[in-house]
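seq as requested:
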Amino acid sequence: MYSRGERFRRAQRVANVWAEPWAEFGCCRGDWGRDLVLYVARMHGGMTLAEIATHAGMKLDTVNKCVLRMQQRVKREPRMKRHHAHVMTALNTGR
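struct tokens:
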């Protein structure tokens, strides 16, 4: 797994892809972009739900629901698959 410092750096890269600071994710209720960033941080960033909740200023159960909801959407919606692929490409190229 990733060290704590590496998880934080990856979290910052996730936020940079979406061009939003972590502190602003918590106030974006209903924004699929927020949910996608939380999903990527959890599934590909090596962050725990508690770490994501702390960085985003959100409740743990809210983060969990967002991640699970986005996991389902990425599986079944072509548009979400494309957005997910875009974020992953940006993360892997360091943009």
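The longest helix spans residues 60-76.
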